[in-house]
Amino acid sequence: RRRRDVLAGTAVLLAVAAAAVLGLQWGNNSLPPSAVLTPSEDRSTPASTPGGVDEFAVPGAAAGWLVLLDSLYDRRASAFAAGDVEGLAGVYTANSSQALADRAEIERLSAMGQRVDGFDPDVISVESARGNATSVTLVVTDSFGPYAVIDDQRLISAATGRAAARVEVSLQLTPAGWRIDSAVRLAGSG
Predict the structure, then answer these.
(1) Tens-place pLDDT, residues 153-162
(2) For the purposes of burial, counting CB atoms within 10 Å of the CB of 14, is it exposed (0-12), middle (13-18) or buried (19 or more)?
(3) pLDDT for res 23
(4) In Å, how far are 132, 141, 170 from 126, measured between CA atoms?
(5) Which tens digit of pLDDT belongs to each residue from 1-29?
(6) Are residues 98 and 172 both part of a single domain?
(7) Strand (E) or helix (H) holding 141
(8) Residues 25 and 104 in one domain
(9) Is 70 inside a domain boundary?
(10) Residue 12: domain span
(11) What is the pLDDT, as a whole number, of residue 47?
């Protein structure tokens, strides 16, 4: 009887030890410590932009997304103004179809020696936000004023801009911060 109790106790201790080891492996998703992103870890871009926008923050209210989204819009405008397709990496996720469209347009303009001047999209409001810590869908109202396509400071064409319109914008949290995955103008809007 005593021997059976000792064996049972040993079996329980081994089971607890095995569970602890397996629990540690599950808790870190079997990734080496260097692959687990932590807040203090170096990122490919600073946590805050020069304008002071925290690229990793998850605002508690819908309106809190406005400053971040506006900074992404500003980067997009800068990429068009400079003819810089690489600048779009600071705006979009790697698989964004909108990034592909913007890249194609910047490359088309650059091939003709042209660029966009005065393009300044504006986020007017963020009406709603739904999602989680790594993915969020916003319904926003945005607009952009008149802009021109120029060639060596010569006007090629002028656009009137777009009045305020409701747009559904999907953001994904990437290792570099929040980036636009998609943006779709909502039906019946602007």
Answers:
(1) 799 999 999 9
(2) exposed
(3) 29
(4) 17, 6, 12
(5) 555 444 444 333 333 333 322 222 212 22
(6) yes
(7) strand 135-144
(8) no
(9) yes
(10) 2-34
(11) 52
pLDDT tens, position by position, 81-119: 999 999 999 999 999 999 999 999 999 999 999 999 999
> Please, are residues 94 and 182 in contact by the beta-carbon 8 Å criterion?
no
How many structural domains are present in the chain?
2
Q: Do 71 and 53 meet the contact criterion of CB atoms below 8 Å apart? A: yes
Give the residue carrying structure tokens 């660029």: 115
Does one domain contain both 51 and 139? yes
Phi and psi, residue 2, nearest 5°: -60, -40
Q: pLDDT tens digits, residue range 50-69? A: 567 899 999 989 999 999 99
Q: How far apart are CA 139 and CA 125, in angstroms?
A: 9
Distance between CA atoms of 190 and 181, rounded to whole angstroms?
21
Please indicate, yes or no, if residue 160 is contained in any of the structural domains.
yes
Angstrom CA distances, 71 to 14, 107, 128, 166, stand at 55, 23, 18, 18
Query: Would you say how long the chain is, in residues?
Result: 190
**Same domain for 118 and 76:** yes
